[in-house]
Amino acid sequence: MEKILIVGATGSTGKRIIEILNNSQSFEPVAMIRKEEQKEIFDDMEVKWVHADLEQEDLSPALKGVKKVIFCAGSGGDTGPEKTTEVDEKGAIKIIDAAKKAKVKKFIMLSSMGADEPSKHKKLEHYLEAKAAADEHLRNSGLDYTIVRPGALTDDMGTGKVKLAEKLDGSGEIPRDDVAFLLIMSLADPLVKNMTFEAIEGEEPIKSAMIELSRE
Asked: Where's the NAD(P)-binding domain (predicted)?
């Protein structure tokens, strides 16, 4: 089984990813936690965890034995510029660099729609600029990667159906459940390898939408 490090494991999307991977026959999730008291969540789930902080210098211990990384950490669009820069940009860059050093096979990044045009979204501009910088660093890292840029995240029940494109017209929403499945499906090689794409709720089943996108 491939060991998958989930960065942002205590967030809503991260927890969903852990739950799904914990029932997988192919992947073994490892939750990256920042606070000691967070370990109980994953001990109860019988999920391995590693203690590390994106704002610390050396992240290499967190990547020991890890084959792939899903980065779904985020300060959120409502956070001030300083915290956003620390987590969404500098933190992401640190873990990307550590992953490269550890010879990780694939890095999956949860980004955001609008990261290609931050100036068009004034309220979220600093957040999207940080996401864009992290995405660009990943693309230039030499790692195999997938960058998923969903629309506005909702807590609605997932439908398993999406609309995907390298660039979608307009905006839209998507349940966190479906985003979790998109990130997990991106672990499969060579599906959506070295691709950046946007995602909103739609009419096409996730698997076939991803296969179709990979063929373009």
From this structure: 8-190
